[in-house]
Design brief:
By secondary structure, the protein is mainly beta. It has 3 helices and 21 strands. The two termini are 30 Å apart. Helix 2 crosses helix 3 (314-321).
């Protein structure tokens, strides 16, 4: 055996980085007792709305909403205000896109024989795309965001007659100079005989320079493009959620037995200043070793995102008029772990929101026994004079 090699440390490192690394990179929002990341076959049928996750809770602050009602089309031209469509190679201008009432018969004679009437997902109107080859893409006006928060985007989609094209939504994140920093996409949908809700996130922006976001709706061909087919979009909703990060005082989460181990939970964008934070320490078998409940000492933060959100959110406007402070707090809270033995450990931190939504982070730690490295071994160097 090579001198200085520690098999215990090797095993712990393997478990840490290959078995459990994904846990510390998990999204900061976990929904209790439900799987929010349902990835389905784009050609499959829609799940019932009652089976979908409701992210629109008191912990989510609406940043942007478009349901294609009158408020979204103030000049009554059948096009959502502030939205643009992509034109050019592969994006033909003759693809018909506009706001419609799907529960009223179309004035187009070609649609009359086979037209099916149905209700919009929200209100009376929605956005309709009629394919005729090629692809289609629409983008909203820019919306102010910030790096203090996590975000979630929801859109409802319905399709008819698609055989090749895929449909979805995306969120584009830009810096203050308009440079694209990140793009997040939803799952792709092909068959949706009824309204199907798709989501982007919840996620935390990787780049701290993000300043604006743009919602993108797309229809993209695969190996072939559909010459016919219809798509409806409705109830676009972008919201911010608290951002939670969990760090340790060792960059690789590996410690020698006897060293102090401290984890720090950082939270921003929360609605109250002193939420209850629960720390849990478990061993490799999931056995609880210790737990700690602390209250965060949050400080109020102000940024341009909050100001712009108030202007576009009637609920928050009522709170301001009622002299109720808008919840926008941030803070950090450390915990020194009572670990005395070598082994593999998990630290789970949760913050209970005002509903069933729980904000959660988890990291893994490896503690190895002290190991004295031999100064000399059976192998050495032979150098020429």
């Amino acid at each position: 055996m090579r001198q200085g090699f520690n098999p215990v440390l090797c095993l712990l490192m393997t478990l840490l980085f290959f078995g459990e690394f994904g846990q510390c990179c998990a999204p900061s929002v976990v929904l209790a007792n439900q799987d929010r990341n349902r990835k389905g076959d784009p050609s499959g049928q829609q799940k019932k709305n009652s089976d979908e996750i409701d992210l629109r809770t008191k912990d989510a602050v609406e940043v942007y909403k478009c349901d294609f009602e009158n408020e979204s089309d103030l000049n009554y031209d059948g096009w959502p205000d502030g939205w643009t469509r992509k034109r050019g190679v592969g994006y033909p201008a003759y693809i018909d896109i506009g706001i419609v009432n799907p529960n009223k018969k179309s004035r187009k004679k070609k649609d009359a024989p086979s037209e099916q009437l149905f209700k919009a997902f929200s209100g009376e109107r929605c956005l309709k795309v009629e394919m005729d080859g090629g692809a289609a893409m629409l983008q909203s006006k820019p919306v102010s965001i910030g790096s203090f928060y996590s975000y979630v985007l929801e859109t409802s989609i319905r399709t008819e007659g698609l055989e090749h094209d895929l449909v979805g939504c995306a969120l584009l994140l830009f810096d203050e100079n308009g440079e694209l920093l990140e793009r997040r996409e939803s799952e792709d949908v092909r068959v949706a005989d009824d309204w199907k809700k798709v989501t982007v996130g919840p996620f935390t922006p990787e780049n701290t320079e993000v300043r604006t976001a743009v919602v993108s709706l797309y229809v993209k061909p695969t190996k072939s493009a559909d010459l016919t087919g219809k798509i409806w979009f409705d109830d676009i909703w972008l919201a911010r959620l608290p951002r939670m990060e969990l760090t340790a005082n060792s960059p690789h989460h590996v410690y020698e037995q006897g060293n102090e181990i401290t984890v720090t939970c950082g939270i921003s964008g929360i609605l109250e200043a002193h939420p209850m934070i629960r720390f849990e320490l478990t061993d490799v078998n999931g056995k609880m070793i210790d737990e700690k409940i602390l209250n965060l000492d949050g400080k109020e933060i102000q940024d341009e995102t909050t100001k712009s959100t108030v202007k576009s959110n009637k609920v928050l406007q009522r709170r301001v008029l009622g002299n109720d402070k808008i919840g926008n707090y941030a803070g950090t809270i450390p915990w020194t772990l009572p670990i005395k033995e070598a082994g593999f450990y998990r630290v789970r931190v949760t913050m209970q929101g005002s509903t069933e939504v729980v904000h959660e982070r988890m990291i893994t730690l490896a503690v190895f026994p002290p190991h004295k490295r031999n100064v000399q071994g059976q192998f050495g160097w032979t150098l020429p004079k």
